[in-house]
């Protein structure tokens, strides 16, 4: 589900940014700017909008994330148990080959 959401969000982002470029280029053409200047103007506006959206996302993320207490490493957490179990299984698999 997370991968699908990322793909759809990326597609919408590209489409929205493309629409912003197109609108900005049309506005620049209407102001009788040369084609290259109009294109740069369109990208400039798109980068501004992208930066503002990124900043807004960072503010929302910072304000909504809960502050977790510092993680203490006790040496035998669930990750350590999974690693030792998998290495034990590998060791027994190699022992059966010989």
Q: What is this structure, in a nutshell?
A:
This protein has helices at residues 2-30, 35-64, 78-97. The protein is an all-alpha fold and 98 residues long.
List the main descriptive attributes of the protein structure presented here.
98 residues; mainly alpha; 3 helices
Characterization of this structure:
This protein is an all-alpha fold and 98 residues long. It has a domain at 1-64. The protein is built from 3 helices and no strands. The longest helix is centred in the middle third of the chain and has 30 residues, at 35-64. The protein is elongated, with a radius of gyration of 26 Å.
Largest sheet: none
Tally of separate helices: 3
Number of strands: 0
Structural class of the helices, strands and pairings? mainly alpha
Provide the low-confidence segments as ranges: none
The value of Rg in angstroms is: 26 Å
Averaged pLDDT = 79
Order of helices and strands: HHH
Question: Helicity level, as a percent range?
Answer: over 70%
Write the layout of secondary structure elements.
Layout lengths: L1 H29 L4 H30 L13 H20 L1
Helix pairs in contact: 1-2
